[in-house]
Amino acid sequence: APTSEFNSHLAVHHDQVTRRGVHLHSVIHAQPPHLVQLSHIPSYQSTPALNEAVLRWEPETIVQLPAGVKFLPFMVPGSQELMENNVLGLVDHVITIWAKHGLMARSDVSPLAACDKIEYAETGAAYECRNLGTGGHGTGLSKDELRRVCDAFNVQTTLV
Q1: Which of 80, 117, 129, 143 to pair with 69, CA 20 to 30 A apart?
Q2: pTM (predicted TM-score)
Q3: In the chain, what percentage of residues exceed pLDDT 70?
């Protein structure tokens, strides 16, 4: 049976294909447990806070997600509100995090490429959850270290 978020899948696909003229576009919806867990914690419930947490654990993450992820506050699954906000969030991002629910990722390359982006974000979230569970003593990569990675790989980002 189609997912209750089918309207959001179609709306994102339609927006990307018509606005950008792409011929191949993949949309994936998933519920990665660590990203969803972080989305339940108030201090992570913003785009800047979630990006700071997720991007700081592995140098490759900012290379793969130079725009980071877009956090969306809780909205009823399948609702018009979620669909509209999801479409807007995916204009400048390849992943939107749906608070207390899951996420949507998109790719112009393939479904597997969208899954790869999810894996990078979920791995960062897993490290963040582990760090929380061990007292929050890990620092992760500093903003300077992330800038150095971006410079080395010519990554255009406004996040660091």
Answers
A1: 80
A2: 0.88
A3: 94
**131 to 33, 64, 117, 127: CA distances (angstroms):** 15, 22, 22, 6
Determine contact, residues 113/57, Cβ cutoff 8 Å: no
Distance between CA atoms of residues 57 and 77, nearest Å: 30
Please compute the mean of the pLDDT values over residues 23-39 and round it to a whole number.
Answer: 92
**Tokens linked to 88:** 């807007």
Give yes or no for a contact between 55 and 62, defined as CB atoms under 8 angstroms apart: yes
Angle among Cα 81, 40, 137 to the nearest 5 degrees reads 140
Tokens of 113: 């490429």
SS3 assignment for 20-80: HCCCCCEEEEECCHHHHHHHCCHHHCCHHHHHHHHHCCCHHHHHHCCCCCEEECCCCCCCH
Q: Is 50 exceeded by the pLDDT of residue 1?
A: no
What's the mean pLDDT when you consider all of the chain? 92
In this structure, are strands 95-98 and 70-72 parallel, antiparallel, or unpaired?
A: parallel
CA 108 – CA 82 distance, rounded (Å): 22
With residue 153 as reference, give the H or E element that holds it: helix 143-153
